[in-house]
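WARN no homologs supplied; continuing
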Amino acid sequence: MSGCVSIAGIALLCYAVSVGPWFVFPEYERTGLASAVGVGAGLASLVGAIATSRLKLAGIVGFAGGTLSAGVFQYLRLNHTFASIQDPETPDPNYAQAAVFLVPLGWVVYVATATALFVWIARSALQET
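OK structure emitted
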């Protein structure tokens, strides 16, 4: 039972640290968008690395679940940003609308790469013992 609870806890923590920067940086600016994605990826990677070193497979699965959920959040947030262009009080984003799809797609590639790296590290650690 502790594995399931660990997966859920790590997933929630990875989701929180991935989504948190989106409430700090303005996603209407390119630098704000890059900062939100970069800080979120860095913090999620840190949580994923620590979880993998301590919990092995449960940490890897929790990292993947939480960060992939954050990718869905990114898509919805960017989609909302472009949908609110009609509102005169909302600033227009200064990047292409293709970012609505490209940013979450890049996030999924990041998650797949980081997950593969964590699996490789965990497998190497198991072979050494």
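Residues 2-128 form one domain.
OK
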